[in-house]
Amino acid sequence: MKTFNIKYFVMLAFLGISTLVWAQDVDEIVSKHMEAHGGCEAWEKIQSMEVKARFTAFSEEDDFYAIKTNDGKYYSKLQLGQFEVIEAFDGCKGWTIDPWHDFTFPRDLNKNEVNVFKQKAEFFTPFYKYKEKGSTVSYKGTEKLDGMEMYVLELTRADGKSETWYLNTETFLEYKCVSPWVDFSVGVPAESYFDDFQEVNGLVLPFFIERTFWQRDRITLIEEINFNVEVPCHLFPMPRSEAMDKLAFLEGEWDVAVAVWTRRGRWYPRDTSTSCISFKATNLLQENITYDNGYAMPKVINYTYNEHANAYQVFLYNGFSSDMNLYEGGFTDSTFSVYKTRLVSDSIQSPNYVKIQLSDMSDDAFIMEIQRSSDQGKTWRPGQKLTYSRME
Q1: pTM above 0.90, yes or no
Q2: Which long-range contacts (CB under 8 A, 24 or more apart) does 167-174 make?
Q3: CATH architecture of the domain covering 242-390
Q4: Greater model confidence, 212 or 1
């Protein structure tokens, strides 16, 4: 029994020493890796990095442009075959305009793409301040690649995604990386290779990067790197469509005067209220308003644009009657008009046509009129008029 205990504690001691030695190896390797890139002290002074390069894909070479920031933001514009691709990432989420997906509008990144953009956003390798980012690194020993001895490090990010890095034992610079990647938004493994290291303002970076995944081969030949460039804030939020930009003047807080059309043929003041209109998504404007029209009328109005229908769509929820109405239309001359096509809750088209029209539109005011027609839109009669004035 005593013999077993001695062996047991010897084994634990050996494992403890091995773990300590490996931890020391990791810290030493990462430290020398950072020194090879110019040192942590020098990199701490870098707030942003601009990259100008030539990018080869589908056997065609074209311009590549990217901006990275020290807090994980990333923006790039590149030519992928016949299409221009735009990418943006704010450190947590991002978007892309990639016509290869048959989309001409920006779309959100999926989970696989978010992981890839975290890799793209790194200034060089992810070992810089990796502990602060929640990553862990383990030492896997050495291995020979292309006749060269490599340290093998496995980096696991805070989200659980792992990458294997091969660092040259003589230069301590990265030579290869195996990591999760994407091909047309589908997760795939990729191998990246780094070469042609050059010094820029005392910092060392690879000017040649080749990435292979499935049948793909991508090559980036960097021509110019600039540090601490001004980074425009507008690059990272998902851009609105051109159609929704025309309605952007609606955004804000408004004083609203409500009037109704009387049988005597004139507008009668009914109530005053306030309204808040804001973008709830890139291409979704939402208004919340409640006013008195005999009864309290809480309404939620959503404005969007349907590219396939080539029309603006307005969804109006009436909290009093719990009706949801869909309107479609667009701009004509100096007005914006949408028409009710059906009641979502009804299977039969309502014979009573309804129109919502915005007029006298400016940055500080506009008028909304709700009109009705009983002859299929040939003539319209006034119903309600809401006059909006921007709050100071």
Answers
A1: no
A2: 167/29, 167/33, 169/142, 171/36, 171/197, 172/29, 172/32, 172/33, 172/35, 172/36, 173/33, 173/36, 173/37, 173/197, 173/204, 173/206, 174/33, 174/124, 174/125, 174/206
A3: Beta Barrel (2.40)
A4: 212
353-362, long-range: CB within 8 Å, 24+ apart, which pairs?
353/377, 354/325, 354/327, 355/327, 355/380, 356/314, 356/316, 356/327, 359/334, 359/335, 361/249, 361/334, 361/336, 362/249
Q: Work out the pLDDT band at 378, boundaries 50, 70, 90.
A: confident
What residues pair up with 96 in beta bridges, in sequence order? 87, 107
Residue 18 has what pLDDT?
41
Which residue, among 104, 107, 108, has the nearest Cα to 307 in the 3D structure? 104
Quick one: tokens of 137? 């690194």
Indicate whether 108 pLDDT > 90.
Answer: yes
Q: In whole angstroms, how large is the CA radius of gyration of the chain?
A: 30
Angstrom distance (rounded) from CA 229 to CA 90: 17
Averaged pLDDT score across all residues of the chain: 90
Q: Which has more confidence, 174 or 18?
A: 174
Name the β-bridge partners of 177: 165, 192
| CA nearest to 55, candidates 96, 84, 31 | 84
Question: Which of 8-17, 45-54, 187-196, 301-310 comes out lowest in average pLDDT?
Answer: 8-17
Written as one letter, the residue type at 50 is: E
pLDDT computed for residue 351 by the predictor: 58
Kindly write down the DSSP assignment for every residue of 117-159, as one continuous string. HHHHTSSS-TTTTTTTTT-EEEEEEEEEETTEEEEEEEEE-TT
Classify domain 2-235 by CATH number: 2.50.20.10
- Domain-wise residue ranges, the chain: 2-235, 242-390
In 3D space, the residue among 310, 244, 237 whose CA is nearest the CA of residue 278 turns out to be 244
Which has the minimum average pLDDT: 50-59, 100-109, 130-139, 317-326?
100-109
